[in-house]
Amino acid sequence: KKPKFSIMSSAAGNFRQIFWPVKKAVESITEGEFRVTDVKPNVSGTDASIEIELNKEVDLTKIKGFIEVTPKVDFIIEESYNGIVIRGNFQPGESYDVEVLKGMPSAKNITLQQSIKKTVVMPDYDPTFKFKVQGMYVSLKGNQNIPIEATNIDAIKVKVQRIYDNNVVYLLNNARSYSIPDDVGLDVVETTINTNVERNKPKEVLLNLKEFIQGDSRGIFFMRLND
Questions:
Q1: Which residue, among 125, 135, 139, has the nearest Cα to 197 in the 3D structure?
Q2: What distance in Å separates the CA atoms of residue 147 and residue 132, rounded to the nearest whole number?
Q3: Do the Cβ atoms of 56 and 85 come closer than 8 Å?
Q4: Which of 81, 99, 162, 217 has the fewest CB atoms found within 10 Å of its own CB?
Q5: What is the model's pLDDT at position 137?
Q6: pLDDT tens, residue by residue, 139-160
Q7: Helix residue ranges per DSSP H, the chain
Q8: 85: which residues sit within 8 A by CB, 6+ positions away?
Q9: What is the Cα–Cα distance from 166 to 226, expressed in whole angstroms?
Q10: Reduced to 3 states, what is the DSSP secondary structure of residue 100?
Q11: For residues 198 and 213, what is the distance between their CA atoms, to the nearest angstrom?
Q12: Distances (CA, A) of 20 to 32, 54, 82, 219
C-alpha cells in the first residue's frame, strides 16, 4: 500500500505542473489582439453617423482623445453591438478621414498596436416624409395647414377620410397607432402633392386642408401619407 500511495502523490504533483502553463496559454490566446475590423458610414433617415467595428468591448471613459475626424467635426461616441458609433453633423456627399490612434485601450486594457486610418464618404439621406405633428385641432378660422417634412422624395400621395359622428366611439375602441378601420366613413379624398425638395435638404411642405375638404369641414378626419 505504501508504494502505491507514493506513486499517486507524485503523479498528481506532475499533473498540476503540466496543467498550469497550458491553462495560461489558452487564456492568452483567448484575450488576443485588439483590432479595428471596419470603419464605415451609416445613414438612417436624416441621421448620419460613422460606425467603427471592434473585436473587443471598450470603456467609453477610456477612449477619449483616441479618435480623430478630418475635416474637424464635433462629435459624440456611443456604444454599439459591434463596437462604437460616432455621431456628429456629418453631411451627405462629404468625405471624412477617420483615424483610430495607436494605444487606444479595450475594456480589459488591451491596447491597439497601430493606428488605423480610413476615408469614408457619407451617402445621401434616405427618402423620408413625416407629419411634423402627431395630431391636432384645426381652427375653422385659421389657415388649416398641416406641416409635412420631406427629404429626397419628389411627390407624396395624400388620403383624407372623414369619420362620421356615429362612428367616433367605434373608432376610439378599434383604431391602432398604425392603422384605422376602413369602414368608419366613405367620404375619401385622394391627391398627390409635389414637394420640390432639394437634394439632401429636409423641407417643410404645407398641406392645406381647404383644398381637400369641401363643404362643412367640422368633424374628425383621418389623414394618411404614402410615397
A1: 125
A2: 6
A3: no
A4: 81
A5: 83
A6: 888 888 899 999 999 999 998 8
A7: 2-31, 168-174
A8: 42, 49, 50, 51, 52, 77, 78, 79
A9: 28
A10: strand
A11: 29
A12: 19, 31, 33, 80
Give the residue among 178, 202, 174, 190 at the shortest CA–CA distance from 92: 202
Q: How many Cβ atoms sit within 10 Å of the Cβ of residue 39?
A: 20
**pTM confidence score:** 0.67
Going by C-alpha positions, the residue among 152, 94, 92 that lies closest to residue 124 is: 92
C-alpha cell at 162: 372623414
Closest CA to 131 of 194, 201, 223: 223
Contact present, 222 and 163 (Cβ < 8 Å): yes
Angle at 89 between CA 87 and CA 93, to 5 degrees: 105
Selection from 110, 96, 28 nearest residue 62 by Cα? 110
What's the one-letter identity of residue 57? E
Is the bond leading into 123 cis (omega within 30 degrees of zero)? Answer: no
DSSP letter (8 states) at residue 165: G
Q: What is the pLDDT of residues 16-70, one digit of tens each?
A: 444 445 545 444 445 689 999 999 999 988 899 999 999 999 999 999 999 999 9
Task: Extract the C-alpha cell encoding 50.
Answer: 460613422
Residue 157 host element (H or E)? strand 155-163
Give the tens place of pLDDT for each residue, 79-134.
998 999 999 999 999 999 999 999 999 999 999 999 999 999 999 999 999 998 87
Residue 36: CB atoms within 10 A of its CB come to: 19
Q: Count Cβ atoms within 10 A of the Cβ of residue 33 and give its class: 0-12 exposed, 13-18 middle, 19 or more buried.
A: exposed
